[in-house]
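Quick one: structure for this chain?
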Amino acid sequence: MTTSNLGAGTSLRRLLAATAVSDSANGVFAVAAVLGARQLGGSAPAVAAVGAAATLPWLLAVPAGMLVDRVDRARAITACNLGRGALMLALGALLLIGAPAVPALVVVVFGVAVLQTVVDTAAESLVPDLVRAAELTRANGYLAVSTRLCHQAVGPLAAGLLFEVSAPTPVLVAGVGCAAAVVLLRGARARPTAPASPARLRTGVVLIARSPVLAATVAVSALTTLVNGAFMTVFVLYAISPGPLGLGESEYGLLLALVGLGAAGGSVLTSRFEALVGRGHLLWLTRVGWAAVFAAPVLLSGVALVVVVTLGSFVGGMWSVLAMTARQRNSEPRHRGQVAGASRMITYGCAPIGAGLGGVLGEFLEPRAIFLGAAVATLATILLLRPAR
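Got it. Here's what it folds into:
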C-alpha cells in the first residue's frame, strides 16, 4: 500500500518527503563532520569533540518536546531546517576560504544537533495529526524507514563520495538539502489540537512514569540501546582483522549497512506483520530478532552471519515503529512532544553508558561472553512487555 492510501495523503506525503531529504542531509553532514575533524584536526581529541557535540544535545530533548507542544509543529520543523541549512552553508563557506575550521566545526555540529532534536520530536508528534488512528502504525513505518535508509545508508554513502571532491562539498550539499526539505514541507496541514498545557521540564518524564504502557516501552527501548552500545563497542574489535571474524573495513561497513537495510525493511512492513501475528506476539518477536543479531557472532561467520543479522534486524527493526505508535496513542496531543522528548532523552542517554560498559567488560570478559550476555539481556526485556501488549 502506498502513502496515497493514507488518511491525510498530501500532507503526510509532504512530511515524509521532507523527512527523507532532511535525514539524508543529516547523514551527509554527520559523516562529513567526522571526516573533516580527522582531516583538519588530525587528532583523536578533534574527532571526539565532534562526536560529543553531535550527541550531547539529546540531553535537551525534554525542552525540545516542550517547545514542540507550544508551537505549530510543521512550522517548528521548517524553522529548524532553515537554521540547520544556514549553519551548514556558513561552515561550508568557512571551509572554502580556508578559515580555522575545527572550533567552528564543533560549534556548528552542536548547533545543528540541537535543532535536530526539535525536528525529530516535532515530526513524530505531527504524524498522528495527519492520519486516522487505524493508519498510525503504517505511517510511522514510513517515517522510521526514512531514518534507517536515508540517514544511515544514503547520507553516509553520499558523504564519502562528496568528501573525495573536497571537504566543503558534502557540507554545502547538506545545507542545500535542508533548504529543499523546507520547500517540500510547504502546504502540510494538520488537524487542530487542544491548546497546550503549561509545560514543565518534568512533565514528559512524569507522564511516562504514570503510564504502564509508556514506562514499559521506554524501559525496553533504553535497555536495548544500552545493550547495543556495549555490543558495538566490542564487536568492532572482534569483527575487523586481526579480530576473529577477519573482516576488512569495507566488509564491516557493508555488514552494518545490511543491518540498517534489514531494519528499514521491517519498519515499512510493521503494520502488515502486526495484522498477521498480532501486536503482542510481534512485540516479543522484535526482542528475539535483536537477540539473534547479538548472538550471531558467537556461532556464525561468513554468509550465515550476514543472513542471520539481516533477518534479525528486519524483525527487530519493527520495534521502533511499535514504540513510536505506543507513545503517540498513550499521550494526549497537547503532551505528545514532551513525552517524545523525554523518551528520546532517556533512550539516547543510554547509548554512551552502554559504550562505556562495553569498554569495561571488554577488559575482563571474552567477546563471545559479552555477545551472549547482550542476547540474554535482550530476551529478558520480554518480561517488561506485558503492559504494552
